[in-house]
Amino acid sequence: PAMLITLCYLYLWARWGPRSAALVRSTVRRLHRSRCSFTFCARQPHPDERVCLRVGGKVFCTGEAQFLDDLNRWSVLLISPFVHPEKLLPAEHIAFVTESISAHTENLQEGPDSSKEIVKWSDFCSPLAYKPGEPFKLIAEASVDNFSSLGIAFLEDRLQMDNGMVPHRIVSVHLQESALKELAQEAPSVREKSAGMDAVTPAGKSGLGRGEEEKSKLEEEREHEERGAGEHHHLHLSSCHECLQLENSTIESVKFASAENIPELPDDCSSKAEEKEEKCLEKGIKRVNLAGKPPNILIYLGSEAAKARFEQVKSVLRECIDAESYTIYQLHQEQVLRDPWIENSLLLVIATDEPIPEGSHKQFMKFLSKGGKILGFSSSFTFGGVQIKHKNKLSKAVHELVVSKKDSTEVKLNLLLSGCVFEEGMKGDPSRVKTLSRLNNADKDAVIVHLTHGSSGGEAILSQAHLELDSNSMDVQTEEDFNLLKMSNSKRYEVLKEILARLGLSCDSSEVPVLTPVHLLSPDEEIHLAFLKWLEGNVDAEGLRASSKVALKFVSSCESQVEVTPSLMPVITEMGSFSSEHFSLKTYHENLQTKKLGKILLFSEVTTSTMNLLDGLMFELPEEMGLIAVAVRQTQGKGRGGNVWLSPVGCALCTLHISIPLHSNLGQRIPFIQHLVSLAVVEAVRSIPGYE
């Protein structure tokens, strides 16, 4: 019977090759509750293993259950949930061991095939423990379908390990409860744990990335693979099964790490998305991102790495859009196939005339099919039967063009042309193609077109006129051309805003706010006086305290005329004159119930970043003077890594200084702090009447 099953699987693979992913998923789902193991490997299977699928030199097979009961030589990770072994593996989760080897071993390639969509190992599982050596071994847990996703990526040479090694084998295991409890008791030192994380994660990258969370594939995507066709769009609700699982496990972990138990959060109300949208409209809340995607704008420059070109395009976009509603990043060529930008971006700006590689073009089309927007500046990107035709006489020529606006009016302006036009007699569905601008010449050449794609709102506006360049940044031939461009500059911005608005962005003008002085506040008069006493011996003769980020100049009152700059900020120490329409010290005092936290407050209406304000104080200030920096707006807010932090009015912008002894219960589990803070915010919001 085993041979017959194997032959059937081989026949199915030969007959239905494209559905191999569905075959893996269905096999794992059907058999994961039984006493068997699943193995994905790059070797010949053992005689007692049944081959289900072969892809190149790799196999997927099933065999007898494999148990892990001796874990003495494994090191638990700092982020491991072993603290509750009895709740570690729900019925729909699988524990497994991933073996990886150095790239130079057996002349292996450096990593996965870069021409394919890369799957990052930690995005699909939670690492639990590791064992260094060759092969390097990692124990992890994942949902049934995420385990399948890792196996599929392994078979298709798309799996990338976080430590840069090459995955060699993935095998499911059954973890004995006794072993889990034994491992939970062996709490290694912080130094050992940190070393373990370095072994798993490349230097310079956070070990608390998406591997700590359970990033599951959506049910619609599973159905898509099994049916082999169709597009699906999933509204992610906070009450979905996977989110509730994550929330429950996080709360349990935090309760263990915290000195005080956190009370149970009430169940989420089951209000529908439509009701929430109606409430937003009733309250007059401004919605500038109706697509629901993160407010990221990406600029693709092909193989160009020139920072000047990126800054040039970024600058003109910033002049047009609401700067407090969107962030702008560069999308490098190597990131197009590797990084998960498709789900995390609103707009892609293509600003290169280089040919678009086939793999990148497919990614751009996938972005459109998922509701993404594309703006092309003199690029070779096109689709939907629209062709680009080169005309030598138009290359680097300044020419008048007529732009049709959405309100049916027209704008005439002069722009530098790329030398290409969009060809008439366009193939494809004419209802999906609309010409927005033509040259004012005999041929009436089309230079700006609007294209739609798919059924999810994907659209692109492509221009063969240099809307992104002003007269100073162009290589114009004559003084006459320079003057024509200069006179059209205001209209160029008008057209750009029109185009961006068509693509769903908010172009409300918002000036960069002016930096304001910092106010030194405290709800406790004694602590305020103690801080001033401490300052006397910790500033120079001019009241200056410098740091690598910003110098703080302490002055007694707002009458002191000190210019506020990103590198020098006056701090007004006298509290009597303080007032703000956005912050009430009285309300802050009434609600502050801490012994140390937040006792010394640095408040500013507008600052660069609240993190900068604490930079020169937090490591020398006495522990009882808990520091917090609060701002109404930030001009240079920082997120994790290279992320930008949007800071419009109405956000709870603050940086809190917390000092935790490493030997304490929480000090041994530092990563839980982010969960404690997140849950505290949720509880605070839910304590407000109407937000329970």
Secondary structure blueprint with pairings:
Layout: H1 2-15, H2 20-31, E1 36-41, E2 50-55, E3 58-64, E4 67-68, E5 75-76, E6 93-101, E7 119-120, E8 126-131, E9 136-143, H3 144-155, E10 159-160, E11 166-175, H4 177-185, H5 190-200, H6 219-227, H7 241-257, H8 273-282, E12 296-300, H9 307-320, E13 327-331, H10 335-338, E14 347-350, H11 358-369, E15 373-377, E16 388-390, E17 398-404, E18 410-416, E19 420-422, E20 433-439, E21 446-453, E22 458-463, H12 479-487, H13 489-502, E23 518-521, H14 525-536, E24 544-545, E25 551-555, E26 568-572, H15 585-591, E27 600-607, H16 610-614, E28 627-634, E29 653-656, H17 672-686
Parallel strand pairs: 4-11, 7-10, 12-13, 12-14, 14-15, 15-22, 23-26, 25-26, 27-28
Antiparallel strand pairs: 1-3, 1-11, 2-3, 5-8, 6-9, 6-11, 8-9, 16-19, 17-18, 17-20, 20-21, 21-22, 23-27, 24-25, 28-29
Helix pairs in contact: 2-3, 2-6, 7-17, 9-13
Task: Provide a descriptive summary of the structure in words.
By secondary structure, the protein is an alpha/beta fold. It folds into three domains: 19-103 and 117-182, no CATH class; 296-503, Rossmann fold; 518-659, no CATH class. Helices cover 27% and strands 23% of the residues. The chain is built from 17 helices and 29 strands. Residues 1-21 form the signal peptide.
